[in-house]
Amino acid sequence: MKERRLVGSPHIHDLGFMKKEMLVGVALAVLGWVGCQSGHAPSVGSHHVDIWHKAAVKFTPGIDPDSVQLEDGTYRLDAGRILLKPVVVPDHARRCEVRLDVSVTSAGDPWDKSGTLFALADDAGRDYLERMLEGDDADTTQFAGIVREGDRLPALEWMRFITPFGVGHFSHTERANAYRPEAVAAWADSASWQADLSSLQPWMSGADTIWVGAYIDTWTAEGYALSARLDMRESELPCDWAPSHAISPLFNTTKLAHDQRPFTQLPDTALKVSFELEHATDVDLLFLTTGHGGHAGGDEFTEQPHIVMMDGDTVDAWTPWRNDCGAFRRFNPTSGFWPSTYVLGGDTLEERVASSDLSRSNWCPGDQVKPRRISLGHLDAGHHTLTVAVPGAQRWTEEEFNFWNLAGWLEIQAR
Question: What's the whole-model pTM score?
Answer without folding.
Answer: 0.87
